[in-house]
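Q: For a teaching session next week I want to show students how multiple molecules come together into a single three-dimensional assembly. I've collected the sequence lines for a complex. Could you give me the predicted structure tokens for the whole thing so I can convert them for display?
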Amino acid sequence: MTQSVVIQVGQCGNQIGCCFWDLALREHAAVNQKAIYDEAISSFFRNVDTRVVGDGGSISRGKICSLKARAVLIDMEEGVVNEILQGPLRDVFDSKQLITDISGSGNNWAVGHKVFGSLYQEQILEKLRKSAEHCDCLQCFFIIHSMGGGTGSGLGTFLLKVLEDEFPEVYRFVTSVYPSGEDDVITSPYNSMLAMKELNEHADCVLPIDNQSLFDIISKIDLMVNSGKLGTTIKPKSLVTSSVGAFKKRQEKPFDAMNNIVANLLLNLTSSARFEGSLNMDLNEISMNLVPFPQLHYLVSSLTPLYTLADVNIPSRRLDQMFSDAFSKDHQLIRADPKHSLYLACALMVRGNVQISDLRRNIERLKPSLRFVSWNQEGWKTSLCSVPPVGHSHSLLALANNTCVKPTFIELRERFTRLYRKRAHLHHYLQIEGMEESCFTEAMSSLSALIQEYNQLDATKSMPAEELPRLSVAV
Amino acid sequence: MSIVTVQLGQCGNQIGFEVFDALFSDSHCPQGLCSKRENEAYQASCKERFFSEEENGVPIARAVLVDMEPKVINQTLSKAAHSGRWKYGQHSCFCQKQGSGNNWAYGYSVHGPRHEDSIMNLIQKEVEKCDSLNGFFIIMSMAGGTGSGLGAFVTQNLQDQYSSPLKMNQIIWPYGTGEVIVQNYNSILTLSHLYRSSDALLVHENDAVHKICAKLMNIKQISFRDINQVLAHQLGSVFQPTYSGEGSFHYRRNPLGIDWQVRPPLSRLPTLGKMSLNKEFHFNTSIANLVILRGKDVHSAELGAFKDPALYTSWLEPVHAFSVWKTQRAFSKYEKSAALVSNSQFLVKPLDMIVGKAWNMFASKAYIHQYTKFGIEEEDFLDSFTLLEQVIASYCNLGF
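A: Of course. Below is the structure for the complete assembly, covering every listed component.
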């Protein structure tokens, strides 16, 4: 069994990270009733004897003593991390695995990347090495950050290069929150563009998220909860947006509901690696199957169900509905239109009491309405994990490598161009040591090249699949 | 004569468990429909083949379990142990922490050499427990990374190290519509390598077995467990003991002793262009058929239809191509049962499809970087395509 380390950077990254650890504990508590430290829980947590001072406290098996998250928390302001360390999760984090500063990055990628990057490089390396040492077999780094600000965007992407150099064999999965159109950070297009170049070059796999989609999901749920329709009582723990404390809407912080959705994404992504099932899917299989060419590693994710209704009977029609929902725009974590674009590859990760025949029936049913690239007409990767998420009897995470991400990137390029043309706010960046205009132009070309790749694939959409001549051999 | 089973990867281990369970259940089945003495001979023969001497009364499967990540092996070991009726050897498994990531190249070029010694040692230990080794039964899938890549590597090693015992690979043909996106690449690489080192490839297609579950057995929600149990049932009915000769009452000691070596005529075969696969076949042309009958009335069964020359290729006499094995001992509570093992053109279409899809993907170079990363180059792919096109062409030509 392998381990993963979560690196949460910046305000957004740490808030999502916090929700993730909360839900991870809840999930393992539900599965692991006897509180034995097993391999599943070791994938994200260490078991530590807190009486031992220093580093020697790790316990590899037996009863759970004290769980410590395999996490590194990085923020250039203290507010968020301090709040976490005073909150209910304070004992889950190892106080030595934090890197904080006080001044913040001022929503400036250059400050995050260049200034804090060089300032904290040694410390970062040290914390990462420590966390790797605590792992028997480290397989993956999960980086959580936002693209629009300064720390998550700048320092978060600085990290990628460090990870690639220091741990070349370990996967880098990045969960990136992209700014929406109405973002209040004026320089977010600059930050996002500069960060994109790093993601293009140093990430193995990127799961783009946008706040608007998360917000829409919440609205949909609220509608359901407040509709008062007969038979619509929702099981509290089953909300994809709920924290451990279920329905306490007032007490929850405003972004908690949205962050919980992302946290659930990460839990479902790793479920088949942690828990048993009849068709397992490890994290290295995600990259192998969903990334046909190194640059095209952006995956659109969608999660279902968003909630489970309290009435117990779940006819198989409901199960099929889950598959249909996964391909509906309402359940996506980024605004995009995969059905009208081209699929390069698609993964279906199912949890709970679902069998291979259910999977096959639904693939057959949904296939005709989806367009796959000519060289991957049956490009489906599937997995069946026996353990459902808390509060559900089954769930589905769909990951699609689809050209529908192109509009997001085009829009980003347009917003960037509008600012850059007027050279607005550019001096804040250029005055940072190591920053030049070429940083911006290179980032632009990197993104344009990526968009061009998607364009070329889209161009093949309308072409008929040609029968390539096969090798002729002498018998 | 004993068979050592090597179970590789998730698929291999899940199926392996069901096979041993089916073999054990059948051999201890009370309704053998035969005399007590005969039943005992059957049981003893089965035990010699598949299980080794028990300590405290529980038979131990003659098997080596290999997987590059621990979850499935742990499950398999505990399922066997919990049954209380048979189990796997305590030290018969080899496990790593991080799987092969559905990457044939990783299974073959990284895991293979890295763990070669450990795995071959385990197999050697199992071989030493046998009084006389008849052969190896290697269970693996083609679509993933461990069963396929590491399986090909291990089979090659077995050929180098044990040249005379038979090496038979049970390969699982994946569903046509994706279990794994790179399954066609993994499949062609596996098949081309196995062709060079295996003696016999026993094929089961997931699609076909799935249909059996749906149409013949009317199972509503089909799980992999259902599929594996059907498979195990089929394999059991082939591998359980049968009489060694007409009228003899001793169970044959050589369970895998089918002479699969087919020698085409030395005279020049007519040269043909690539035959269109759309041509209607009336029969699947065979080069060898084996019928296995178990239960009531086996000696009076009418098998003339199997000797029809129309079933076989023009350069073979039915008498050389057709064999039958029998036993009065019923299999698994079925009063009468029959199994057919066939070396024929049945696999041409599925093979052609896989090669076609892999070729199509290869032309776009999609996913190739994942393989070249671990030392499998485009040339290796081309070699595999060439070999398999030759296999397809050879089988197609049987029809003339």
